[in-house]
Amino acid sequence: MTNSDFPQDSNNTFQGEAEATKAKVSTPIAASSPTAKATPNTQRNGTNKALLIIVVALLAVVVLLTVLLFSRNGDADQSDKNAETSQSAQQGTQKQGSGTDESQQEKKPKDGAPAPAVPDDVRKIIDSQHRLTDGDPRAKGGVNARVVVEIYADFRCGHCANFALNVEPQLKKMIDDGTIRYEFNSLPVLGADSVMAAQAAQAAANQGMFWEYHDALYEAFAKKSATYSVDGLTDLAKKAGVKDLEKFRADITAPQTVEAVKKEMDNGRRLGLTGTPAFLIGYQFVPGDIPFDTFKQIVDSELKREKAA
User: Which of 229, 197, 223, 191 is nearest to 210 (CA)?
Assistant: First the structure.
């Protein structure tokens, strides 16, 4: 065994440890680590800065939420205002329409319901519009029909043409079985050509050919082939089957024809009619082009009023 196999002198060992401990105690702290440079003041400053940043961030969030809240409230208020404006505009549009349209909307009967009662003065005015003459060349149906229908129309009106060509043929059954009488009235509101067409239709009526010429006028209008000079209207009369073309030509501009058309137009204006087509179906005024189903519904309501009377 050598000396190296045993511990050295314990005094020497303790002395080495003591020197090492002394060296650790005597070594400045600053030399042991860079982070050891921080002082209590420095730590407090860092903490304060962190708190300040947090406070600022919280304030920013609060401000942002406040702005968003007011923005949403403002949008809701504006939306409500827009809705109110839209509703008012719709009501205003309805009120600015013709008074006859608004009254018709109020008086239009519900499905299956009888038409409302008619004041006596209104009944008299409407009754005075009916010609109710046997052999009237511009009327279809008997004078004793249960419901009298008046149509006011212009031969150059697209809606009138649509009704004449597509709805009038469906009225035949009601005319034939005595439900309705259908009387035509000229209301040439679309200018001089409309007046000429109305006078030509009256000339055809003088020969008992009103409805044939009525159909020919609307078909030519729909095909955009109509001309409204005397020659053009006479050519159309020939196609419609009018026999005496010389008489027809003369009657177009005859004083009595001109006066008859003017009288009907003036009558329509006195009734307050400014657009075509317009109808008196029984005691109901109906403006505008209407489909057959609506026409029949109104006739049915008039029949129920008749039963209820």
Answer: 197
